[in-house]
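hey so i finally got around to running both of the ones u sent me last week. sorry it took forever, my laptop kept dying halfway thru and i had to restart like 3 times lol. anyway pasting them below in the order u listed, first the sequence line then the structure token line for each. didnt double check formatting much so if smth looks off just lmk and ill redo it

first one:
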Amino acid sequence: MNMAIWLDRTAQAMGDRPALYLGPEVVADYAAFARRAAGLAAALADLSVTPGDKVGIFAWNVPDYLACLFGIWRAGAVAVPVNAKLHPKEAAWILSNASARLCFVTDDLAAGLEEESALPLVPLQSAAFERLCESAPAPLVPRSEADLAWLFYTSGTTGKPKGVEITHAMLAAMSLCYPIDVDPVTAQDAALYAAPMSHGAGLYALIHVRMGAGHIVPASGGFDTGEVMDLSASHGSTSMFMAPTMVRRLTDAAKASGRRGEGIRTIVYGGGPMYSADIEEAVDWFGPKFVQIYGQGECPMAITSLTRAEVADRSHPRWRERVASVGRAQSLVEVAIGDAEGQPLPPGETGEIMVRGAPVMPGYWKNPEATAKTLVGGWLMTGDVGRLDEDGYLTLADRSKDVIISGGTNIYPREVEEVLLTHASVHEVSVVGRPSAEWGEDVVAFVVAAPGAEVDAAALDAHCLGSMARFKRPKAYFAVPDLPRNNYGKVLKTALRERLKGEET
């Protein structure tokens, strides 16, 4: 089934419902939204885009981002959304690797991409784009469940990004898990796109389209804490996806201004480690508005979830362990922990997280070697390390490449980071391994101090010794003004390890 049919069905049933917003202003109802996507699909066919062809989107968040996605799918083509924060060289590489036929761009990104790529570009918010949308509507091109809908390129922190093949069936499975495992959606709700629509926020658009909810794009096109709170208070019943760093920033801004997140119904967080101290503080301030999901591009948004009740619960005897977890398997996947040979381990044992089910990718685009390493025996080998408890709650340790081996013992940086973050002087922290002639690796911590505080190594050392085994505590603490991050907000531990090169151990 072509997932663009969901827009058609919603337009038929509730065409006069407000659909697309720019800031607080409605710019299209569902009937107009569907007409724009259908016109765009016809224009793509006129531009010689055929079913299965790839079409890029290198754009900041704008309302017509959704018209592009649904227009591309309606034409039977494959969307290749590219993070707008990437350098034009990086974007050009992705579009070339995908064999894209053309690319939709926002004006401020067009010039840079033109210097790096000969690909035809179609500027959004232009007269030319309007003419495309006004084309006579094209019929929906049939697609099978196995046909590609989206090429999602991984962040590529350890090499060139890989293109994850996301099929129409995967989008359907992910979308249907959302109201079951994450949060119900109604036509009175609205999705607010504070995070890039090229990633998780855009993926969640599908279920909100199917249910006739609104789609609010901030006028800034990005994440401004004050704007997010203003728009939520104005519309009411807003839901949004946020990376953990965004939740941290929103909490800090809300506490500074005395605002309690009026109008925010749900914040789904994921895409990186959410530390217990941060989510506990956010729930204490905003109330039970948070749901956690764990997923990867290879199984988008759909591995596990921790419900709002579980995130907010303080009565269960093991509530702290559960808040520190990423929840339980979503409805359409199986989750297991494997040993070095991929054999399932019993509850409580730590190993690689393995997933199988309807939302799992068929492979990487034009990369059979990486596919063979990642899809093994019917399982997606996530590269993440974790453990399952007897109740099915999954707790992440780290990426396998980030595990520190000191004196032959595995030390998981996240465990150390969780302890350090409970100290009042620590605002952010990242723990990595430093080469050691004696131990193989030493644990070291890069610490961003809380406002008005200083990094006191002796105090942090005492704090660690009071909470965990001596061998796990950092051997050194480095005060830094901030932590290096990639364009997706994830801390670049590779960059921190580079800083350590040449140090005496």
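and the second one:
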Amino acid sequence: MKIKNYIFSILFFCGLTGLINLQAQNKIDSLTLQDGKLILNLETAIDIALSENPSIKVADMEITKKEYANKSAKGALLPQLDLIGQYQRTIKRQTVYFDGGFGIGGDIDPTKYTPEELKIAQVIGKLFAPDPSTTSSSEGVQMGRFNMWTTGLNVSLPLIVPSLWKNIQMTEVDIELALEKSRASKINMINQVTKSFYSLLLAQDSYRVFKETYTTDSLNLVNITNRFKQGVVAEYDVITADVRMKSLIPTILQSENMMKIAEIQLKMLIGIDSEVPLIIEGALTDYEDDIFNTLIPADTSLMNNSDLKQFDLGTQQAKNVVELQKSQFYPVLTSSFNYTYMSQNNDYKFKDYRWDPYSVVGISLAIPLFNGGQRYHNLKQSKIQVLQL
């Protein structure tokens, strides 16, 4: 049985690893392949980057997080329900003193009782009446029991809470800011992928030019060598052609390294494995018009500039913070409801306990007066932040 479990665990992890690799392979297989190589153009590279790059995914997660924060802020306006349970053990019971008896006897209104009830009340009053020679320092009565069990339901609902309303407005601006940051990250990603793609094309063209130059110089060296053997040219021309051809070798190696670096950078940006072979479609001349329009755009207005939009949203957010600090000076009105069952006893015989219900409903009004100047200084701080923006 242990061997079977061990083999099952190995097969499970192998299958899980294979599933992950299959998902990654399906992503690549969905694109155009040629001889096991990924055919990539600028549009395909941008599409992969916008779906696979981690920074884009993080920006989208930030939007989702702000949406949850907005829902949480709105949830503060809904009723809050708490199921409570409490146990208290009395160490020393409270002592209560009654001056002038227990409120019966001399304080009885005779018009409200029958003669028989008056007689009974007078007898009880004489039994519990204090000694005339004693005062309020007479012996008291201990009240309560040692064990107290409480369970019930607490419900609270904010009625007028300005700070909650302002907090909801702030979270809505946070969502807009997160959306704008996501748009900025996508614009930045498109810009980086485009520049990296052009750099790779430039490196490939440079490498191709140097290789062709080397091939031409090699043929030229063979031609000059043959002419030297026939005595047509001097040995100096052969040496010059050989040096010119060999001087291209470091340049070719450097351009080849630059081409590899540009390819790795492009793979990193679009979020694919560095071992995946690429075939780049087109040449740099095919994107000449796009490059010219990028360098000299037709629209030079700043209406859609993401940095300026983020700046405006940040200013609006700072103003909302000022309003939030002002709301701390306003009164707060809340309502509450409590329904509780309580049991008091001196033992732990739960089946014999008697549970008595107790319920209250009320409205609470809190008017802030003084808290050490914290609200005032926080308001000043928020106003300075607005001035800084």
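quick thing i noticed on the 2nd:
Residues 200 and 233 are 42 Å apart (CA to CA).
anyway thats it, ttyl
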